[in-house]
Amino acid sequence: MNPNLLKIGKLIGLLAIAVWANYFGPGFLATVFFLGTFVAYFLSKDEPFWFVFFLVISDGFIGFFNNYEAVISAIPGLPAVEVGHFYVVLTLVKVIRKKSTFKPFYNGLLSILLVYLIFLVVQGYVLGVSPELNVQFRIIKHLLPLTLFYTLPRLFDEEKHFRETMTLFIPFAFIALFSQVFTITTGFAPSQMLGLYQNFGFAADLEKGFVYRGFFSTKMVLISFFAALYYIATDTKHFNKILLYAVVAADFMAAFLSATRGWVICFSFVTFFFLVLVLKLSARRIGLITLTSVIVLTSLMSIPVVYKQFSQAFDRILTLEALATGDMTAGGTLQRLNDRAPRVVNKWKESPLTGWGFSDDFFKYGDYHVGNQNILMHSGILGAFLLALFFVYFQLKLFQQRFKLPRSHPWKAALLIFPIFFMGWFIIHSSSGQQFQYYGSLTDGMSQSFYFSLGAILFRDITTLHKKKE
């Protein structure tokens, strides 16, 4: 049997056990199970397998493992710790034991960001932070996922690790779309049908006739979309091209059915420039892709409730026309520009240079709905500048590597995926919810470290290849 299929089956099986242990087994069983996975990961050399497992546990799975559901009560009296945080700590221990000497090309700028991050923590205490342990604990939880920017490129130190990870991403792209269609069709999330009696607001919206806004496994959808595009561009024989295109289509459709405007614009932007600048498709191939898309859409639209959701999602996206004509609320569906943004900006103006750091004022006024304004309020003009400098430096250095490759080299086209995808990602950050900052959720840390670590490994390998030629 195909070893990749065996590994996927093992992963799905482990997740099924995790679901049973966390939701349906005796109360102590979840803790025992997750402790067992920590031991198994620590002893394992299969980094891709465990990365995907803990990403799914942190990102959600058909309605299971939502925020703060896969947890372990580590310290009495304090909030439970998410399972993924233990994974992050273990990656650091493994890197220290490994004594890796690899340094990503952006290591210098990353060190500067680390210094500024420490400053933001100190500044927060100077400006005032509640002494309560749960607040102190929250700051640590905000900072810990950033550790992956250090550990992941040293654990995923070969390009094949990212390829193996993409292999494991594939089924979850389709599972995310299935969850969307299933929920729209039945009015219940798959997890509810499997016996999890939990209230999902987006499912309740369907009963009231409102636009369905559910979105399953958002970071998996996002990062598998990026990885699929990258491996299509590399033209590698390790993947079936049709399967990769199917992943792209599934991720796009999952985002569209959520009626989340920023995500739809992002995926549309990235797909368009991928076809035009990376693949440089002929009219014939563009026609084939268009025909395939029409067939898939027609099949989905044959389901009445999906047709209704499709129409409502399309109508919601068209509300952006009102924004273009000067209606800052986009027909009453958008509060970011006329409500949320001014509140955050007014607070930032009280400390424009360095913001408010990790202070009580930041936690009170912070609003992830307005990403750019929130960065300013948290880290000030200086922090926003350093973050932008890091992003620009990363993209420019990778782009320069293209000139070291012969025209026929598959990585030459694939390197264009990084800036194209990042611009789309920044659209989400600017319109739907903050993605980049001096702190992060587990899924933020995992998806972003994957993206930047792949760039670091490619930079190293291209540099090595160029030196050999000399």
Structural notes for this entry:
- With 470 residues, the protein is mainly alpha-helical.
- 71% of the residues lie in helices and 1% in strands.
- It has 22 helices and 2 strands.
- It has a two-stranded antiparallel sheet with strand order 1-2.
- β1 and β2 form a beta hairpin.
- α1 runs antiparallel to α2, α11 runs antiparallel to α12 and α13 runs antiparallel to α21.
- The longest helix has 31 residues.
Question: How much of the residues is beta strand, in percent?
Answer: under 5%
Count the beta strands.
2
Largest sheet: 2 strands, antiparallel
Q: Numbering strands along the chain, what is their spatial order in the largest sheet?
A: 1-2
Radius of gyration: 22 Å
* Low-confidence segments: 320-333
**End-to-end Cα distance:** 43 Å
Name its key features.
470 residues, mainly alpha, 1% strand
What's the short version?
The chain has 470 residues and is an all-alpha fold. Helix content is 71%, strand content 1%. A hairpin with an 8-residue loop joins strand 1 and strand 2 (81-82).
